[in-house]
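Translate structure to sequence.
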């Protein structure tokens, strides 16, 4: 899902891990539910005017941020939400941050959901739904480029607010990203490179593609342009065209490099056969046509 949105998986994993504390699902009364955080100052603003005093008297709403404390357990937080829903369901659902991305329900309209209930259904549908919700928020708020630039301070300021340094969001995301990037880099060496990957291995791939006649700037980012060049090379050499630089594609690229014993002959022969196919087809059609 990260690659489909042009994000390095390690970066999205790092954000999700820091935001969720490394958990995606809570057991609430035997149900699997997303992690939530109830924001009493949101509820105080959104609750119907005639119900605000009731919400305040029950300790569910306050004009002061942080005055309504969240219990430590998710089960207790869900009970808190249920109490608020009994007063004003829509306001309560909008006053909760949902899932691994901790996206506020109040963003439902700006994120393109038909209702806050639809946003909540997405978050409660499972981990994939939580990721879809987080990705919508990242795209809507123009944060994809910030993530790709690895500007974690700018990201944390936009995502977590001006007090992000109090909780060290930027440095925590940077540290977790480094771990995931290292792990994913080890997997990439075994399984190949694909969209969303980045690093020196990708830059090497881009240099090999350039040497094989498919020029690219070696920026170390496997984006749409690199995927197209990989597909072109795969089509040219008779490989499965999937845009993934797996072991066979990488081996073919190395063989096509100048100085390789088979590179010139293999690439020349492949291109010759491909270019001759239309001529052969025309000859076959002509010979098999009706006789005069």
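Result:
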């Amino acid at each position: 899902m990260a690659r489909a949105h042009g994000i390095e998986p390690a970066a999205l994993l790092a954000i999700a891990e820091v935001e969720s504390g490394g958990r995606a699902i809570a057991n609430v009364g035997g149900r699997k539910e997303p992690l939530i955080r109830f924001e009493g100052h949101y509820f105080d603003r959104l609750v119907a005017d005639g119900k605000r005093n009731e919400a305040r008297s029950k300790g569910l709403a306050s004009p002061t941020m942080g005055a309504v404390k969240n219990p430590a357990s998710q089960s207790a937080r869900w009970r808190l939400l249920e109490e608020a829903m009994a007063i004003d369901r829509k306001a309560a659902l909008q006053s909760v941050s949902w899932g691994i991305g901790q996206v506020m329900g109040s963003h439902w309209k700006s994120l393109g959901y038909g209702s806050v209930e639809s946003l909540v259904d997405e978050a409660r549908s499972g981990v994939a739904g939580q990721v879809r919700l987080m990705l919508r928020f990242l795209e809507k708020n123009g944060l994809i480029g910030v993530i790709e630039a690895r500007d974690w301070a700018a990201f944390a300021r936009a995502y977590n607010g001006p007090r992000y340094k109090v909780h060290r969001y930027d440095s925590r995301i940077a540290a977790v990203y480094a771990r995931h990037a290292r792990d994913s880099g080890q997997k990439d060496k075994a399984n190949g490179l694909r969209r969303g990957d980045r690093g020196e291995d990708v830059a090497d791939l881009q240099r090999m593609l350039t040497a094989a006649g498919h020029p690219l700037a070696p920026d170390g980012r496997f984006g749409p342009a690199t995927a197209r060049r990989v597909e072109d090379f795969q089509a040219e050499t008779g490989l499965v065209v999937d845009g993934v630089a797996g072991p066979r594609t990488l081996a073919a690229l190395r063989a096509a490099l100048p100085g390789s014993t088979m590179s010139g002959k293999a690439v020349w022969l492949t291109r010759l056969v491909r270019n001759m196919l239309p001529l052969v087809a025309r000859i076959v059609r002509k010979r098999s046509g009706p006789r005069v």
